[in-house]
């Protein structure tokens, strides 16, 4: 049997799936979960993306959800900043990490790193962030103090965060609370007690597919 869907039906499904028509009543994390992450390169845009999908919303609610650990902010899809739920975000990170982009010869040549130095960077960053929150400069200082990593200082200071993204995808770090308008970093498990970790890709794939394709029956409680 062939199922035919009109453009109007497809548009209506998409609008309903994205909580735009009708606008939903989900709590902030519910909106982020339904969308499988919200792009957050610009904080005000991320808040707008959430607020337009809630019938009742308040200014600063996304920031409160981050502060409360109901959301985390990290590099995710397309290597850009996203809001993710700590319970589900690890599945998307797992699939991004599975591509192992940092092991490509072209990537390593361009950034002047090797697989060995990336492994060392990961080890040192995890140690430096254990139980604390560090600014970019503080993290760079901790990393470059280790023999063999001094040459990547300039790249680590870059706002693009190219060398730090593989660490985010593997669940080693995420963004912490802004400090004087400057970014900070911390471990995801410290950012949220709800952090479920980064599962194996074989486990993550079905979860991510279902999250993307199927409309979830998430909580409708305000928050």
Short account of what is shown:
This protein is mainly alpha-helical.
Descriptive report:
The structure is a single chain. The protein is mainly α and 223 residues long. It has helices at 7-17, 28-34, 43-51, 61-67, 89-97, 105-111, 115-128, 136-144, 153-157, 165-169, 188-191, 201-213; strands spanning 38-39, 72-75, 81-84, 134-135, 174-175, 184-186. The strands form 2 sheets. The chain has a 3-stranded antiparallel sheet. The chain has a 3-stranded antiparallel sheet with strand order 4-6-5. The radius of gyration is 19 Å and the shape is globular.
Summarize the topology:
Blueprint: H1 7-17, H2 28-34, E1 38-39, H3 43-51, H4 61-67, E2 72-75, E3 81-84, H5 89-97, H6 105-111, H7 115-128, E4 134-135, H8 136-144, H9 153-157, H10 165-169, E5 174-175, E6 184-186, H11 188-191, H12 201-213
Antiparallel strand pairs: 1-3, 2-3, 4-6, 5-6
Helix pairs in contact: 5-12
């Amino acid at each position: 049997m062939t199922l035919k869907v009109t453009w109007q039906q497809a548009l209506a499904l998409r609008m309903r799936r994205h909580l735009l028509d009708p606008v939903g009543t989900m709590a902030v994390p519910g909106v982020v979960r339904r969308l499988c992450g919200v792009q957050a390169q610009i904080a005000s845009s991320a808040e707008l993306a959430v607020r337009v999908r809630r019938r009742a919303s308040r200014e600063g609610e996304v920031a409160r959800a981050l502060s409360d650990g109901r959301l985390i902010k990290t590099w995710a899809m397309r290597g850009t900043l996203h809001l993710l739920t700590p319970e589900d975000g690890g599945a998307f990170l797992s699939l991004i990490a599975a591509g192992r982009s940092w092991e490509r010869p072209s990537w390593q040549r361009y950034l002047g790193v090797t697989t060995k130095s990336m492994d060392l960077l990961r080890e040192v960053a995890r140690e430096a962030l254990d139980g604390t929150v560090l600014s970019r400069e503080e993290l760079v200082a901790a990393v470059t103090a280790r023999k063999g990593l001094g040459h990547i200082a300039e790249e680590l200071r870059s706002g693009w965060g190219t060398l730090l993204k593989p660490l985010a995808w593997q669940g080693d770090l995420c963004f912490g609370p802004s400090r004087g308008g400057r970014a900070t970093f911390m471990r995801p498990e410290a950012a949220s007690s709800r952090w479920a970790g980064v599962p194996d890709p074989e486990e993550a794939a079905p979860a991510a597919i279902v999250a993307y394709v199927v409309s979830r029956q998430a909580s409708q409680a305000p928050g």
